[in-house]
Amino acid sequence: MQLPVVTWGLLVLCLPKFSVAVTSLHRMNVKKDLVTMSGHSAGGSMAQTMFVSYSSRIKGIATLSHTFYRCGPGVLPDANSTLQPDDLFDISCTNLFNPLVSELYDPNDAIADILSYFQLGLIDDPKNMEGKPLYVFSGSMSYLFPLQMGLGPAQVFQPFIKNKDMIKIAVFPANLTLPSNKPGLPSCSGPLDALQIANCGFSAAFESLQWILGKKYIRPPSKVLKLQPLLEFDQTEFFYGFGENVFDDDPVMDSIGYYYIPKACRIYGHKCLLHFYFHGCMTSRDVVGPNHVLNSGFLEVAETNGIIMIFPQTRQSVLSTLRCWDVYGYTGDFFATQLGAQVIVIKNMMDRIMGPDDPYDKKPAPTPEAEPADYYTSPKPVKNLEVSPELLRAYEDDEDNVLQNPAPYQDVGRKNRHCTLTRVSPDTVLKRCRPAE
């Protein structure tokens, strides 16, 4: 994935204090039924991945300036290929290789993935998404994503949410940016600066949180507001629980993350809301420090409304030079499920914050080495989801998504794609395809 040349301008904004002392996340007094997530750029896909993986725990999500869940083949190029690690994603999901509209990844394939993952016991029951809110922002002038891809999250999640009134779509003449209403920022449709935040005349932080939590909980930020310090926490405490599906047991996350506790939660002990925000590519701590977080607009909304904010951070690696969240499989084949390394780390954070008495702590994580009985090996349970017949037909027509009693591991060619079979149990393999090179 490529980024355009960015402008490293000097932003003079009124910012909260920033604490350099690294602490540990601890149990907090939060409303467990109102946990929400959002993300900008690749962070928007990470929010979607968490929603799919743990839909029983997440009340709603917002995705800002990115495409839909599990877009692309989900595999890395062959070892002897000249392609970069993220090129297969870019070929299928972005403008970078000038694809025809017909060559872009079909959202129906992402829907089929959700159904397959549920059959395999790798995600929560998608029925949990029904009636939950989704906010989608897409810039019509994005250098990276065609508008149809930017609006893809609504198409993917509508069959599961079912109620179209729970999905808000915001389209604006914007680049691949996080919209803000703060003065001193670049124009909404202009080139990105280092923080990838622009003055679009409205705060995406406020609008998205108000949509997914409702006006009952989210009021506009106060004009006169004293913010608390932004804190650092040790992310490495949560690097555990990985299986063999993760490359080198490495979630490709920074050792440090950020978090914010409003005064009402920190001093007065009020039961507060909990929100995770995932940064985009090249706006992680090791690139821009805390400045993307400090300028995002989320802290003002959090302080006004009593929202504890968690800002996990990625880092650079050979397979992710732009510090993107895993949207193309660089941490392992099951990156978009409960087995994904980054998903495991975020879930560990949720468990710590919510406390040991949380019922989800008692639920063991799925594992590819589980007995065959732990997995569905028939497509019949899909019908219980009651999604539209067209979507079910699209899934069932691709009969090779899940193969029973498979032959030994092999590569399979189908149409113009290269497909790889990954064994998830002795009797079940999952097929993943990528475009022909």
Automatic annotation (TrEMBL):
Keywords linked to the UniProt accession: Signal
Region of interest (Disordered), residue spans: 357-381
Domain of life of the native organism: Eukaryota
Signal peptide: 1-21
Protein name: Uncharacterized protein
